[in-house]
Amino acid sequence: MTRRTVGTIGAGVLLAITVGLFAIFGSEGQNQSYQPQNEFKLDPWVSIKIGSLDLSINKAVLYLVLATALTVWATVYVAKRMQHQPNRVQTAA
Q1: What is the DSSP letter of 38?
Q2: DSSP-H helix ranges across the chain
Q3: Is the same domain home to 84 and 57?
Q4: In a 3-state reduction of DSSP, which class is residue 63?
Q5: Residue 34: inside a domain, yes or no?
Q6: Do 78 and 71 touch, CB atoms closer than 8 A?
Q7: Which residues have a Cβ under 8 Å from the Cβ of 9 and sit 6 or more positions away?
Q8: Residues 59 and 80 grouped into a single domain
Q9: How many domains does the chain have?
Q10: Would you say the pTM of this structure is higher than 0.90?
């Protein structure tokens, strides 16, 4: 048997087992309370509204501040250690 045949047979057996288990057990034990799409809702932690402009602080704002701080720190770290001949830090950056 070739590798392709063995792979096809293996995939077919795996698919048959999956369909069989679903047919036997169905959706028993399904967790309805966890909704992953709720992780992307941006609920304001600190509500700031100026007229129709919403400047609320939420999870997305925190991630942007952390990314900015990390980028500024890395840039300053590399800039302080710059030399005329590039060292390992400059090469990595």
Answers
A1: G
A2: 3-25, 59-80, 88-92
A3: yes
A4: helix
A5: no
A6: no
A7: none
A8: yes
A9: 2
A10: no
Q: Coil, strand, or helix at residue 44?
A: coil
Distance linking the first and last C-alpha atoms of the chain: 50
Identify the CA nearest to 58 among candidates 68, 44, 37. 44
Residue 45 included in any domain: yes
- 91 and 57 within one domain: yes
Q: Which residues are paired to 46 by β-bridges?
A: 57
Of 80, 60, 78, nearest to 70 by C-alpha is 78
Whether residue 35 is contained in a domain is answered as: no
Compute CA 28 distance to the chain's CA centroid, rounded to the nearest angstrom: 29
- Please indicate, yes or no, whether residues 55 and 87 belong to a single structural domain of this protein: yes
Six token digits for residue 51: 């007229």
Residue 92 lies in domain: 40-93
Record the tokens describing residue 82, joined without a space: 């710059």
**pLDDT single digits (tens) 17-45:** 999 988 888 776 777 888 888 888 889 99
Q: In the predicted model, what is the mean pLDDT of the chain?
A: 88
**What's the token pair of residue 56?**
């609320």
